[in-house]
Amino acid sequence: MPEVTVYGYDGGPLPAAVAEATLLVGGARHLDGVSSDAERVVMGSLSAAVERISIHDGSVAVVASGDPGFFGIVRALRRAGLDPVVRPAVSSVASAFARLGLPWDDAVVVSAHGRDGGLRRAINVCRAYPKVAVLTGPGAEPPALAAGLQGWQRRVVVASQLGTASERLTGPEGDWTEPNVAIVLARDVADGPAGWLAGGVRPPDGWALPEDAFRHRASMITKAEVRAVALAHLRPAPGMLVWDVGAGSGSVAVECGRFGAAVVAVDRDPASADLVRANAAQHGVDVRVVTGAAPAVLADLPDPDAVFVGGGGPDVLAAVLGRGPAQVVAAYAAVEPVGPAADALTAAGYTTGGAQLQTNRLVEIAGRHRLAATNPVTLVWGAR
Ligand SMILES: C[S@@+](CC[C@H](N)C(=O)[O-])C[C@H]1O[C@@H](n2cnc3c(N)ncnc32)[C@H](O)[C@@H]1O
């Protein structure tokens, strides 16, 4: 097995030991300053480089940016069965926050690399969380990130070529260059509270919260038990965008936000906007509120991953299905829309299900208990 040492590069001088290796691997800019006659593999394809390293008989110096153990080459080397020694430099994420003078133990770090929806996931994390570092790359450049954040109150700072003479902090439309990391901040949040768990993403401390956890108009709130089943089918998580259409109090939107999803709450009633904002603030989540009647108002929104339809007719459900979310849940107090909704989901290619939920809540009355009936609600859901 080759002896592999991975050196992090943050613009500072590399250790003299790098030049003693019999194989050098790294980006052109990393290897530029290394004076050695050893064979060089200039990194293009990661898999080709790892393959070459694996068959080398001797010592290998791999030079990679920042901390190679953080979204870097160390994972690929270990997967190939190698056992590298790692000499990290300062991660670009740590440097970028340092340049802004900000703490970052409360920041979410997301990689926008990869063709499997990396940029989309990164945008949704930036929509959901107040302090995010995005590892950008080809196909996921800062302007595309900024474009996805339109409609959300965010400031994007691009930190380019950290540690070099060409280092700069710019906006997403400025003269940024590769490589760069984008720091995305909610306008009103620079420093989060001191915590004990790094990373900014954490599961909610409870869900399917009681109705009195939300400001709402009488009876215009999805009951906790119904919300529980709806959330199970919506499956909100970091990286997703959820629409809550006919949001009312925004109880579903807020709960999805508590699971780390980006959320848009839509309601035609302007009074609902205030309720949703108050509930979002109360629960410490960021919900974008759109006041207007669906389906028209949905046209300008970014495509959702999951949609809760709490209000609106068949035209609203049809418009939602036209946007192809992976999960849809619609709630109905009346029975008439149920069959057509199930048919519409099935016709749109969803695996469809539904259930009428009617709970009898335990209440105490004069030292005894009775079971008080709540109104039945039918949920119709689809997944694909
Ligand atoms: C039963 S409430 C939803 C309750 C909500 N899920 C909650 O937990 O608070 C229905 C809401 O849908 C809204 N609504 C109905 N039709 C709509 C439409 N076409 N576009 C937007 N909002 C609509 C109403 O204003 C109302 O606030």
TrEMBL record:
<dbReference type="InterPro" id="IPR050714">
    <property type="entry name" value="Cobalamin_biosynth_MTase"/>
</dbReference>
<dbReference type="GO" id="GO:0032259">
    <property type="term" value="P:methylation"/>
</dbReference>
<dbReference type="GO" id="GO:0009236">
    <property type="term" value="P:cobalamin biosynthetic process"/>
</dbReference>
<feature type="domain" description="Tetrapyrrole methylase">
    <location>
        <begin position="55"/>
        <end position="170"/>
    </location>
</feature>
<dbReference type="InterPro" id="IPR035996">
    <property type="entry name" value="4pyrrol_Methylase_sf"/>
</dbReference>
<comment type="pathway">
    <text>Cofactor biosynthesis; adenosylcobalamin biosynthesis.</text>
</comment>
<dbReference type="GO" id="GO:0008757">
    <property type="term" value="F:S-adenosylmethionine-dependent methyltransferase activity"/>
</dbReference>
<dbReference type="InterPro" id="IPR014776">
    <property type="entry name" value="4pyrrole_Mease_sub2"/>
</dbReference>
<dbReference type="Pfam" id="PF08241">
    <property type="entry name" value="Methyltransf_11"/>
</dbReference>
<dbReference type="InterPro" id="IPR012818">
    <property type="entry name" value="CbiE"/>
</dbReference>
<dbReference type="InterPro" id="IPR000878">
    <property type="entry name" value="4pyrrol_Mease"/>
</dbReference>
<dbReference type="InterPro" id="IPR014008">
    <property type="entry name" value="Cbl_synth_MTase_CbiT"/>
</dbReference>
<keyword id="KW-0808">Transferase</keyword>
<keyword id="KW-0949">S-adenosyl-L-methionine</keyword>
<keyword id="KW-0169">Cobalamin biosynthesis</keyword>
<keyword id="KW-0489">Methyltransferase</keyword>
<dbReference type="InterPro" id="IPR029063">
    <property type="entry name" value="SAM-dependent_MTases_sf"/>
</dbReference>
<protein>
    <submittedName>
        <fullName>Precorrin-6Y C5,15-methyltransferase (Decarboxylating)</fullName>
    </submittedName>
</protein>
<feature type="domain" description="Methyltransferase type 11">
    <location>
        <begin position="244"/>
        <end position="296"/>
    </location>
</feature>
<dbReference type="GO" id="GO:0008276">
    <property type="term" value="F:protein methyltransferase activity"/>
</dbReference>
<dbReference type="InterPro" id="IPR013216">
    <property type="entry name" value="Methyltransf_11"/>
</dbReference>
<dbReference type="InterPro" id="IPR006365">
    <property type="entry name" value="Cbl_synth_CobL"/>
</dbReference>
<dbReference type="Pfam" id="PF00590">
    <property type="entry name" value="TP_methylase"/>
</dbReference>
